[in-house]
Fold this protein.
Amino acid sequence: MKCLLATSFLFFAFYGNAQTKLIAFKSHSGNMNYFISAIESNSFDMEPHNLGMAPRKIVQFAQLDTVVKVNDSTAILVTTDKCKDEYRPHIDPSIWKEGTDTVYNHPLWTCGNKDSIKDVVKRDFHFSNNIDSTVFIGFDQIEEQKKNDQDSVPPVLNEDGTKQNNNYGIPIAIVFVVMLSVIIYLINWRRAHFKNSTFEQYA
Amino acid sequence: MLKNKINEILHWFALLTIVFIPASFHFFPFQQDISQFIFSWIPALFDLKITDFSSDTESLYTLVLFLMLISVLIVVAHHFWSGWESRKPEFLSLVRIIIVYYLASRLMVYGFDKIFKTQFYLPEPNIAYTPFGLMEKDILFWSVMGTSKLYCIATGVIEVIAASLLLFKKTRVLGLLISVGILTHVLLINLGFDISVKLYSFLLLFISLLALSPQLKPLYCLLIKRENVALAEEERLSIKSPIRKSLKFLVIGMILIEAIKFPLTTGYFSDDNLPRHELHGAYEYEEPSHVGLERFYFHRRNFLIFEFSGYHFESYEIKFDKSDKIFTAENESKDHLIVYAFKLYQQDEQTFVELRDMKTGHIIRGRKIEYRGLPALKDDFHWTIESYAK
């Protein structure tokens, strides 16, 4: 239920209703005194809206480069954003911002050890890079793993605990269109070739 | 001579507009970044408030004027290139083909956005409870359109038909004529209801008229003078037939995928049916409040909106903690952050929500109102006036 709750809110945060920035702002009864600052800072859901079309939601597929453990309560995450124009309901672009994020008293990043963090990240996170390529600084290699609070990380699981499938609708459609266009080319080429050879035969 | 030069300038301007005015392309999401990278000095030069080239910003108007200036300079530069005149007809023809496909892609996208109800979406609860006279014309128009499924689907289908007609040589002129009609109507709506897509809709109308320009004279002779004339020959790319057909299919396929990405990615055919979060909706404030709180609303795009007496609304952006039913709510001036724990429960067949301020312990309790049952949001239809009275 928790997972469903968390992901479902993200879900409708991602599938958008087309509008202009101004209408998007007015739709949540925004105070016009803050409209310009909302656009400038790309906050208050301003970014995806333009020209009254369905929004092109920029999803930040973060690459986790480095995790620095400062002390028992503080850790610094160094991330690189990979912007992709995908509608992925289970990834919240607000979770990871490009650059460095400092987290305090986080049950995973400050209380876990290197190995347990890797396990959780592999299972529950969607970083674009392999976690094994991430550099961990300041973490002790403690054999005994602390039990992490799994719920404190952004869940990407279905209610039944299975991993969500990524949406392959668009890639499949693209492959289908490309294959058909190749087939159309081959049919037309063969037809043209056959016409020419027949003409030469009777000429 | 001058007429030819103006025609050339307009073709260059249309091409530059298509390339640099950032539209939301799924297959080319970097258009905004490219335009921003090349022309970011324009807003800086004029010290404009909003620096990105989004719909109807001063930056976009300035960019369009600058593109017009570049078009003039290009045509002037052609004066010094002797080989240009022989290549010009081919270039103009190519630009018109690009325009037609661009126009088809835009109409297809807007059309399917209407069909899937992602453009004119169902009004949010806070809008549904805002009095008619307190809303500006743009949000009012957008919301009213969103209440009618039939109108959205019908207008969307017309746009998709026009786009489809544009894609084939035989039906292109008819497609352009319908497109001009549609885009004139769209421009009038944007001007009349003060909707901030004025410039872009004007540009779309302009390029549709430009694509139709070779046919204007024959159409005038045919329709007004009633002369027996043939329409101008439609342009086509001068490449081998098998490649052209294959390329055309590929482009049409991509345009179609771009347009129907909503059902492809969600599995739903109407935005109205897309699942909302259980919190989403309108809530009547339960206890009498000293601050005059009357209702609060959860907006689908992660906003909590408080309504105080006298129809005063305050909007907070919310971010959910992924575990404990906790969210942070930040106001627009970004100087007030509240952390709420929330609880939904049923009582006497009614749904209630309890928001507890984690810092002060203050509790806000609200009763959920079925806002979709409001008269404006009902999908009623009456053939006769008597049926209203039943």
Remarks:
- The first strand of chain B starts at residue 281 and ends at 285.
- The two ends of chain B are 70 Å apart (CA to CA).
